[in-house]
Automatic annotation (TrEMBL):
Name this protein carries in UniProt: Methyl-accepting chemotaxis protein
Source species, domain of life: Bacteria
Amino acid sequence: MGSETWQSGQGERESARQASWRDADRLMLMGLALHVLIALALGLHFGGLGLALGGSLVLAGGALAAHLLAGGTALSAHTMAVTAMGMVALQIQLARGMLEFHFGVFVTLAFLLTYRHWAPIVTGAAAIAVHHVLFDRLQAAGLGVYCLTEPGFSRVMVHAGYVVGQTVFEILIARQMYRRAAEQSALVGLVEHLTAHERINLDTGHITGAEGTAGLLRDAVDRIHGVVRQVQTAAKSIDGASAEIAAGNQDLSVRTEKMAASLQSTASSMDSLTVAVRQTADSANQAHALASGAAGSASRGAGVVQQVETTMQAIDASAGRIADITGLIDSIAFQTNILALNAAVEAARAGEEGRGFAVVASEVRALAQRSAEAARDIKRLIAQSTEQVQAGSGLVVSAATAMREIEGAAQQVAQLIGDIARSAAEQSEGIGRVNQAVGQLDQVTQQNAALVEQSAAAAESLRDQAQRLADEVSVFSTRAG
């Protein structure tokens, strides 16, 4: 597309140059018309109207035909230069070689600068030089033609020197004008290339021959081209990146909202857990108080059992002493029975006199027997009581051991419940801090969700800005790749 655009620009510049040369042709035709008027006036004045009319028609007709058939070309320009100098030669001929009309040569050379090219100037100078040399020699030969009022080759050479000097100077001017025209044409072509197809075509890679201002403009356009390509690339990258950021922020926003909902649920659960742990801590404190009371009661019960054990031991000792006393009574009863038996024997020996004593002895014996039986009953009961006391003492010892174990267990339970209460209090405090942290995290998550929404909106705005930037930069046409 760039090559086609440049070729199209080349064609347009060529057409512009032809149009410029056509304008120069028209100016030269206007000048020829002025020459025709001067020639007719000279013909009337010097009596050569026919020559003036015929020569003017031939020269002007040839110039007009060249313009109509090949206007704007080198052929037309050279034809204009020759015919213009021919009109000057015609005027010199009509004026009989008057020196004043030789100034037309310099005026015509100046007119030829309208082509802004050296070739028509050289052609015109060569044509008038040939005319001067040829007509001077023909005039010297007496053929009725005029170059000067009198033939003189040296004067012709002097005139030729002036013509050469002006021609050289005008060639330099024409070259400068041509260069300026070329720069202008290149500048116009470059501008037309930049603004072709309702876009700004920055691709100048196919443009060659741009010099001067056009070259500087092309260099500037090349730099702008590089910048615009970077901007276009950056706009596309920003568009893609902002689209990815917007999509990522949208996903992050959804996940953050879900996380916020989960944190709210977690915070609610942590509140419930905090209340439950606090209730557990309170219950553990109450259980610790009850366990401490139970441990005290078990300690007091152990003391009472120990007192009972002491009392049982005292009863056991008393029962032993009673058994001893009962054995003494049994021994006394046995001795009394023996004494009564001896008394009865003595009474039987005494006969009638000892009958009353025998009765007393018999009663004493009966009383001794009853005492012995009572002592034996008491001894049996005391033995049973001793056995029961010993069994009770064993039970009391077992009860005391059990109470001591209960007391130790109650103390351990109280210690464990105390530890549980302290742990529950610490857990309650820790859960409270966790609950506070969860609350802060929930707040931060809510803030993050708001920031994510703002970031998503900013990314979407950035994407819109990048799209607008890409749309704005798309007016510049750059090289592919």
